[in-house]
Design a protein that fits this description.
1004 residues, alpha+beta, seven-stranded antiparallel sheet, five-stranded antiparallel sheet, 20% strand
Length: 1004
């Protein structure tokens, strides 16, 4: 630690000096570069201004030199106009040329000539006249693209240097022809784009033609443009024109570019001729490429860009300030100041840091949490800090006392002397643990002692004793061990609780016949219930972690979340990944969704089901899988079909069918009855049966009702009046229907025709013969039987709900938690009663400790809450909370109270179980099958056929064979009866296939 303090002191010694020097360096650099940049900007401004001045001069002189040639062309055109273009010949042109000094007047011009426009049809005549005019052959020369008319150079002087151009058709080249036509249209002089002159073909794109049009004379003032006869022109070479100009500006590089919409042509540059030595030193390394000046001028319809680039010599001649010199001088001054100031600050800072270090070390030692004691070579105390003073109760009188006097109370003297000898040899001693009881304290402190020798020049000067108080650490370590033990106990208890809860849920799932399938997020099956195994005939091992649910379903559609009977407009994807992504999206909007699909069975058959889907979630992971509960629609669809057929039969019946309440009010009528009685489909319920009947002898509906229900075969003859007949004889039959604790009477009225003999009135019941003319009676009887069964089931459910409400059982909430599966609830209730029977044994409960009692109450709470026994669940929850809050809690009163609670709940649970079993009556007593005839086998085959075709007559056929089937296979009798009663024909089909061999065996 001392070494660390010294190192920190050395670092801090130069901190402020370095920081100050760094700040000065940054300021100096900023000033130096600011001065350098300012000088560079001033230099650039001076150079640019000088360039602009020279550029103005050069641009003006270029324009003046080119414009000068127009004067010569104007003079030549004036001479031609004076003589007349038709009379101007070779001799006249030569005479005019000899009268002018072109070399002096127009320096740089290659000559001046005359161009004549010749139609192609007159070319031969023109060539002949031109040859005669000269006295020798005149030849035509054309370039790349001849056109009509031709623009032929007829005269040019001096002719010697320009003989290549004599007879040249300038209209056969695009640039020359375009300039000539532009000149003729504008009526002014026009300059071609940069071209290569035929008389100077070694100078590519350095030549121009300056053209001035010659028009035919006009005697009168006309608005039309005069005819063009030809042009006077001058071939020019830019190098010859600007030769003297480049000499005047030798320090600058002149470049002239013709600006064209399609392509710019740089036709003149003095880069080679004006280059100077680049070895000259320039401020900031300026060169001729650093600065440029540009200007655009217009000359005879052409746009030229003139550019000037200074040379190194030209820049050097401006005598500019050197920014680099300013930079070096400023940096040098800054470094000198830094060196002087840094040396001074280091001296001052070192002195201050030494003082600060001594103060800091003293404060650090005094305020350290560890006790520090310094001793000399004889191990007598020299100094100590506050922590050591508190531990050993040191005072000023303790100075110069042997430290062994304070340590010998906890460590033997011999051991301490051995430690001191080891330290005197220069070896440190560390982690000596001992207990020490300070004065005025009752408890011992756990201390750890370390001794560090102080050696200088291989001489022992003393030692430093460091005492660390680890009493709090030991206490925390002990508490942590105790908490770990308690935590392990709680983990074990919770593990047992979770295992019991999982076992309870697994028992419920295994005992349930509900098809439950769980998958992961992509559809891989992770759970396959026993109900799914029975229904789909796949085994658990065949499906889990091996098959994807998409392989088992087809024709999948999403049912409307607001109405499970209607299909959503949103289409379902077909790929497995897309299907489950779609399901996940829907479940984020709705807690549950329902899918309609066909579910595959093991042997390739499909059954129509509704899949009720919910998602399994994990914190921070989102959706991890899905749970599918299948609702088999096969039997439901068959029932709907049968009901549809019955409704069709009722609506197609030619008899009047009326449904009335006990007071005689008509609540429903079929279509034929509405037609006969003049009722509509909406106002039939507004009439009374007395409005239809014709009573005799003070008869009323109430007296007729008793006679009708008590009559033989429930049939009597009576009179009614219809819409079209005031009186008609009919046969009436009636059936009593009980529904929702109310009585309804179904009345069938048949008109008496020739095929139906008239029956006695009122008091004379019909004979035993039942009319056979209409088959609707059998449909009516089956409908009554179905209605009776539905009424019985509804009465049973009402009794269950009333019982649960009286006994404070949350039956509907429990069914909701079990997906409204009555079979699962029934099995869970049986397990719950068995569990209550075990908990009722007080002797068994008294031998349990608190942890076991807590698990018992937790398990009882879960099962009671699941099945709707709210009071018992709350009691178990309170007892569990009390045990968790106090480990020493006496659970005996709670167990005694539990026994009382169980004795009260158990009879209630058994009563509920009996009511639930009323929906599945017990198997009738077994009868010995004495003989089975062929008629029995035929009736059995009829039952199989009706079940296979989902025919409702199976509910009438089965009672005729019930006693025989019960005798043959009592184990499957109840299952078959429940299947047929609940219209589960597919399940009944499998049971009948199992019973059929037994029946055939008895028949043999």
């Amino acid at each position: 630690m001392i070494n660390t303090l010294k190192k920190d002191a050395q670092i801090n010694t130069y901190k402020w000096a370095n920081l100050t020097s760094l700040m000065l360096l940054i300021i100096g650099l900023f000033i130096a570069f600011t001065l350098k940049n300012t000088a560079e900007k001033n230099n650039a401004l001076i150079i640019q201004n000088s360039l602009e001045q020279d550029l103005n001069k050069v641009s003006q002189e270029v324009k003046e030199r080119v414009n000068k040639f127009e004067y010569g062309l104007q003079g030549l055109r004036g001479a031609i106009n004076t003589i007349g273009f038709e009379h101007f010949n070779y001799q006249a042109n030569l005479t005019y040329f000899q009268s002018r000094d072109y070399a002096r007047e127009f320096p740089g011009a290659r000559g001046m000539g005359v161009i004549k426009m010749v139609p192609k049809s007159k070319l031969a005549h023109f060539l002949q006249r031109a040859s005669l005019d000269r006295g020798n052959t005149f030849s035509l020369t054309q370039l790349d693209s001849p056109q009509d008319p031709l623009f032929v150079v007829q005269y040019i002087e001096p002719e010697g240097p320009n003989k290549e151009s004599v007879g040249l058709d300038i209209g056969s080249e695009v640039n020359r022809r375009r300039a000539a036509i532009s000149s003729a249209i504008a009526g002014t002089a026009s300059l071609t784009a940069p071209i290569t002159l035929v008389q100077a073909d070694n100078k590519v794109n350095h030549g121009f033609l300056l053209l001035l049009p010659i028009f035919a004379p006009q005697n009168t003032i006309e608005k039309t443009m005069p005819d063009v006869l030809g042009w006077v022109y001058a071939p020019l070479l830019i190098n010859e024109i600007l030769a003297s100009l480049t000499e005047q500006h030798s320090g600058l590089t002149l470049e002239i570019t013709d600006i064209n919409p399609t392509k710019n042509i740089a036709f003149f540059s003095t880069a080679k001729t004006s280059s100077t030595s680049k070895s000259l030193f320039l401020p900031s390394q300026l060169t001729q490429d650093t600065h440029q000046a540009h200007r655009k001028i217009e000359i005879y319809g052409r746009h030229w860009q003139i550019s000037l680039t200074p040379s190194a010599q030209w820049i050097a001649n401006l005598k500019l300030a050197d920014p680099q010199k300013n930079l070096i001088m400023t940096l040098g001054s800054t470094l000198l100041i830094i060196i002087i100031l840094h040396s001074f600050l280091r001296y001052i800072t070192r002195r201050m840091e030494n003082i600060r270090q001594k103060i800091s070390l003293s404060s650090f030692i005094d305020n350290a949490s560890d006790g520090l004691i310094g001793v000399d070579s004889s191990f007598t105390i020299l100094h100590w800090n506050h922590s050591a003073e508190v531990i050993f109760n040191l005072n000023p009188n303790s100075s110069k006392k042997p430290i062994i006097n304070y340590l010998s109370e906890s460590i033997s003297t011999d051991t301490l002397i051995a430690y001191f000898k080891k330290v005197a040899r220069g070896e440190p001693v560390s982690k000596i643990e001992f207990n020490y009881q300070p004065q005025h304290e009752r408890e011992n402190r756990s201390l750890v002692l370390s001794i560090t020798p102080l050696i200088k020049d291989q001489r022992f000067l003393g030692a430093s004793f460091t005492i660390n108080d680890v009493s709090d650490f030991k206490l925390l370590q002990s508490q942590l061990q105790q908490h770990n033990i308690e935590l392990k106990t709680k983990v074990d208890e919770n593990t047992i609780e979770i295992e019991q809860a999982n076992l309870f849920q697994q028992n419920i799932l295994n005992s349930s016949k509900v098809v439950i399938i769980a998958t992961d997020a992509v559809g891989l099956i992770t759970f396959f219930s026993s109900g799914a195994e029975q229904s789909l005939r796949f085994s658990h091992d065949e499906m889990v972690a091996k098959r994807n649910l998409v392989e088992l379903i087809k024709h999948v559609t999403l049912l409307n979340p607001q109405d499970d009977n209607t299909h959503s407009r949103e289409s379902m994807p077909q790929a497995a990944k897309d299907i489950f992504s779609f399901i996940d999206t829907q479940l984020k909007q709705y807690q549950h969704i329902t899918l309609s699909c066909d579910l595959k069975q093991k042997y390739g058959e499909y059954k129509q089901v509704n899949l009720h889907v919910s998602a399994t979630m994990q914190r921070n992971l989102g959706t991890t899988g899905f749970v599918f509960v299948a609702e088999d629609l096969t039997e439901k669809n068959a029932l709907h079909k049968q009901l549809h057929l019955l409704n069709s039969a009722i609506n197609c019946s030619r008899n009047m069918l009326l449904w009335v309440n006990s007071e005689g009010d008509i609540i429903l009528s079929n279509k034929h009855a509405n037609t006969m009685l003049g009722y509509s489909a909406t106002n039939g319920h507004l009439h009374h049966i007395d409005d239809v009947l014709i009573h005799e002898n003070d008869q009323t509906w109430h007296s007729l009702k008793h006679r009708l229900l008590n009559a033989q075969h429930n049939e009597i003859t009576y009179k009614i009046h219809t819409l079209n007949s005031p009186s008609i004889d009919v046969i009436m039959s009636a059936s009593l229907i009980n529904m929702n604790h109310a009585e309804f009477i179904f009345i069938e009225i048949k008109a008496i025709t020739a095929t139906h003999p008239k029956a006695p009135l009122l008091s004379k019941p019909l004979r035993n013969e039942r009319p056979t003319a209409t088959p609707l009676v059998s449909h009516h009887n089956r409908r009554d039987e179905i209605a009776t069964q539905l009424n019985e089931e509804l009465d049973a459910k009402n009794k269950i709900e009333a019982y649960c409400q009286t006994q404070h059982i949350d039956y509907q909430g429990a069914l909701s938690r079990l997906s409204h599966n009555n079979a699962v609830y029934l099995k869970a209730l049986e397990l719950f009663i068995e569990e209550l029977t075990q908990y009722a044994d007080i002797a068994l409960l008294e031998n349990r400790d608190n942890s076991e009692c807590k698990i018992l109450f937790h398990s009882l709470k879960s099962s009671a809450a699941t099945l709707g026994f709210t009071h018992l669940a709350q009691f178990a929850k309170q007892q569990e909370a009390m045990i968790k809050a106090d480990d020493k809690y006496d659970a005996t009163p709670g167990l005694n109270e539990l026994t009382i609670q169980i004795n009260q709940v158990k009879p209630i649970a058994k009563g509920l179980l009996e009511l639930l079993h009323t929906e599945h009556p017990q198997t009738p007593p077994l009868e010995v099958v004495s003989s089975i005839t062929n008629e029995t086998v035929s009736l059995f085959n009829t039952l199989i056929e009706e079940v296979n075709t989902f025919n409702m007559n199976a509910t009438n056929t089965f009672p005729k064979l019930a006693h025989i089937i019960n005798a043959l296979d009592p184990e499957n009798y109840s299952a078959l009866k429940n299947a047929i009663s609940n219209l589960k024909f597919q399940q009944a089909e499998q049971i009948l296939k199992h019973i059929q061999p037994l029946l055939l065996k008895q028949c043999q």
